[in-house]
Amino acid sequence: MPQRAAYAGTAASARRAPPRRSSARRPSARRPGARRRPSRVRWDRVGRLALTLVLGVILLSYLNPALNFVHVYRGTSVAKAELRGLQRENGQLEKSVDSANDPAVLEREARRQGMVEPGEQSVVIIPSRH
User: Fold this and answer.
1) Cβ–Cβ under 8 Å, residues 122 and 116
2) Residue 123 confidence (pLDDT)
3) H helix count then E strand count, the chain
4) 34 three-class SS
5) Tens digits of per-residue pLDDT, 23-49?
6) Is the pLDDT confidence value at 106 over 90?
7) 64 vs 42: CA distance, rounded Å
8) pTM of the model
9) Spatial CB neighbours of 30, under 8 Å, sequence gap ≥ 6
10) CA distances from 3 to 9, 10, 11, 66, 67 (A)
């Protein structure tokens, strides 16, 4: 008997009528013979134009940092050249400081200023005026 009850329940559900559909059509449903007008907007072109504009804006946003990079690079090159010149000058000045303590250099500078060693006689030559 339990089988019969299960079978009877299945048969009862099979006898039910399917749910009714409304007679109103959905807006997207078209009649077979009706044609839709082609869109005047070419969406593929609009999409390409929008992507091109976005790419242009992105490229413009990179322009200022790129120009700054070029200015900094040029400034760095100029500063490096100036540094090399100052290093050369510093080397020459260090050599002159080191040589200033040499006894021969000290004697030459003293004589240039008119000094004499103890025991030497100083002679001054005055040019004639004819």
Assistant:
1) yes
2) 82
3) 3, 0
4) coil
5) 555 555 566 666 777 778 888 899 999
6) no
7) 35
8) 0.39
9) 36
10) 10, 11, 12, 84, 87
